[in-house]
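Consider the following assembly input.
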Amino acid sequence: MSRSLAVDVAFVLFAGGAVVAAWLVFRTDSMVRAAYWLLASFLGVGAVMVLLHARFLGLVLVLMMAGEMTIMAVFMVMFMMNPAGLNPMTMVHQHGSAKVAGLVSFAGLALVGIVAEFPDRPRTSDADPTAELGVELLGDSMLIFETAGVTLLATMIGSIAVASKRGRFGDAEEGSGPPPLEPTARPAPEPEPAMEDHDHEGMHHG
Amino acid sequence: MNPVAAVGVVGGVLGAGAYALAVLDGAAARGVAGMPRRWADVVVEPARDAALLALTRRSTTERPDAQAWALAPGLLAAMAGAAVASVPLAEGFAVADVADGIVLFGAAMAVVMVGVYLHGWSANSPFPLVGGYRFIALALSYEMPLALVLIAAALPAESLSVGAIVASQAGSWNVVRQPLGLPLYLVAGMGLAFWGPLDGADGADLAGGTAAEVSGPARLAWELARRFVLVAVALMGAAVFLGGWHGPVLPGAVWMALKTLALLALTVAIGHRVARVRLERFVVVAWAVLIPLALVDVFVSGALAL
Amino acid sequence: MTLQSLLVVSAALFGIGVYGALSQQTFVMIMMGLELMLNGAMLAAVALWAMSTAGAPKGQLLTVIVMTVMAVEAALGFALVIGIYRIRKADMTEKLKRLRG
Amino acid sequence: MGVIRRLATRAEAPVFPVVGAGGRLRASELALLPGIRLVGTPRAASVLLIIGDLTPALVRPALTVHDQLPSPRATVWWPVGADRGLLQAWPGLVTVEAGDAEGLRRIFAGLVEGRRASDPPLLLDIEPARWRGEGPYGQGGTGMTGGVPFGRPLPGRAPDPDGLELDQLPLHIGPLFPPFPPGLVLDVALQGDVVRQASVGENPFRSWPGGPDPGPLDTGAFVEALTTPTGVAELELSRARHHLRWLADALRVHGLSALATRVARLAATLAPTDGPEVEALVRRLRRSRSLASATAGVGAVDRPAADLPAGPVARAAGAGDDARTDDPAYRALGFEPVVHHGGDARARMHQRLGEAVQSLELAGRAGEAVRAPGPALEGPRGPLRRGRPTPSSALVALVPTALAGSEWGDAITTVVSFDLDMEEAALSEVAGVHS
């Protein structure tokens, strides 16, 4: 088997797998499965990147997403009802319009991809793309890279501040109920857990 | 390399390593327990246990996530195999000395975390599930030190390839140049293979944790897979910190095997001497002590490499 | 593996992501949709880098930035979910009809 | 016979023990028997080993565990003490003399070679409730998750210390959970790895129709000494053995099972001349930083001393009561109680280690000294007084408060550190104890 044929076969497998896995993310009832289908999709894209010689990026994508998807899975088990999908159910709204939007964006982008004339200038250099990336990150684009780093730092601090129990203005739960009716009264208790709330009986229709 | 030969080499290394690990563990357990031992028995024992497991029927639980359950050991074994493939087993001989070997290793170890969690989750049983949660809490806290010490080891080599890192240790090994590296690496590595004091995921206090519900061939596969991970960790540790194939007199491949076995023996000894860590306390230690130490390691190694 | 096929795949990933982000009710599932969209974008960037820009290093840089965006999105998303859950005990968009503290 | 089968026949027999009435002492020696390996989950076992007599409340859990063993499997019974006939009806049960490892191995070998049929399942394998696709989306009930899939409600939610409401798993653990003392049943609400609430369930050793009727207790020698003159050396040797047996259990829970086997062997063969070996072991364990960090601050019981039942647990919290202080035979030996401070699992471990060393030393010095029968005697779990509650029954009451809010690993450490015996706890007062 020639090398380019092997690459083509691998591409079809990985890219097709990535798309199928992406679709299955929204077709399963089990939250853990949803998270790991998404991971499978990232693994497929990571593999395609490796095929495209962006080895470092592909591997880092896998490294990052394995951790993130696991956190996501645990998150959903923590917060969501029916984590294992024992109860078949759908939790979609505006299903029709969402489908249309998805199809339209796919069709539009695919059309651009097929019709538009991109310059045909494949990568020719034999240099290690990882080394090129390293030189770029710490050379010309250092400022951009550093900005990304600072953004991440700010995000870390910000998300801890948002998520932690004691925020900047005291206990997060304080004053979270509806405002009191009389100015001197203490805040009313928290609203009922929304599970029985009749607001969203329409949430099932697809 | 021919794909069949590549699979054979990787499988052979993992299999031999896992068997050696089982023998070492059996010998150490008998030594610590003060049980009389015949070497012949100690050497054959793992094969006997494996044979028994192979003959035992696999059991199931009520409504498990069967595919994920079956996938989990395969995922661990595949990731261990990917890691092994990138390590040069002798000078100039690696199954696939990819240019970003240690990034590949980091990615493989991150996917190991997924495998262990899936194994706990899919059994649909409380103790395995708690084991899976425990593993995530632990694994997330040593992914970071693991990545940092590997980066530090790559600095003097000015390359992410494991072969280049080994080549850079011709003068002095990284274990001497970066004394913080190997201990931190071993803590993280033992944790990823949930071995010894870090076996919270499969601990005795959870009746076996994620493995509490598996029997027969599935149990065999799981025990093998986790040993594969530990072997991959030891092999990578031997290459990255102990100078890989470098060594006098003996051929490089022998040095590599000896160093790997030495690391495996060290983990076995730690496993029989150190009590299981408390989850919460260890997570605090990992974030507040291990990560800063790993950062120091990176800074110092970087300064030295300049 | 041509540029066209790569771009079609990335468009498919993006489209599925759009569908997911719009149709799902749970915050975390919406985040998954967003991540899928970024996934498609990243694939397109790498494809163009490899096939259309003669491997200019800036292409890889763009991908790194997209990854950063993904990390930021995930971190902030999780933090907001916890924050909202803490206050409203809600994990679904429809439970947030009133957007006041 | 293929190679694999021949190899498997000579493997160590993986055994899951079910400890019934009177079986505790035998069970403590299991790890020492050649050719047998104790396993922590029935899924890893080939032989279900019932030691002692099953009480009515233990039968059902034992059957459940039996069916969790993968086939080929066999059930072996080691009878100890009285046999009240409940086990006669167990299909496929093989009775082997208690402690006979060879007999057990013969059955195991027959099983692996295929000469012996695997036990059939003893319970019906059915789902507790049939799942029906009720409701508009087949979700099994009304509302979004109103259904009860497979007879099990989805976990409820409860506040957690971080101010969130998270899933809480109600679990019923025991009476055969290996890290627990045999017979302990805990109803816990687990939030992830954290025990939110715990309560002790019905004691299965109380389930005989005519009231509790346990087999021989592991502290039987001490109960007997309440009424018959006994050598001090013999008593103290029993005490040291008891503490070492406890230590073996504790080490196993902390993941040091090889060391636990060494301690169990020491306990089984202990003689007054073993002082140096025990002291070396104690020094090593006291120095172990990992063991210290695994137990320090775990399961601390406060000391409004009135609540804390006297005994090693109270002495580990600084209360120096010891029934031996007032005993003339011990006074003649110059006995001073060992006391530790802190009241946590670590202090309790050090307390028992200290008492074991002291007991061995007393046993060496006591010579022929004999203790006259008296109303009170310090047992290894606390004072035994005729007509007063047994030490274990008072200790069991400490469990729920000590566990609430701790992580599961710490909860196990705590339970083990109390050194409970549910058979003893089944007796409301010491007079009913026979040996």
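Chain C touches chain A through 80 residues (CB under 8 Å). Ask yourself how this observation constrains the way the partners meet.
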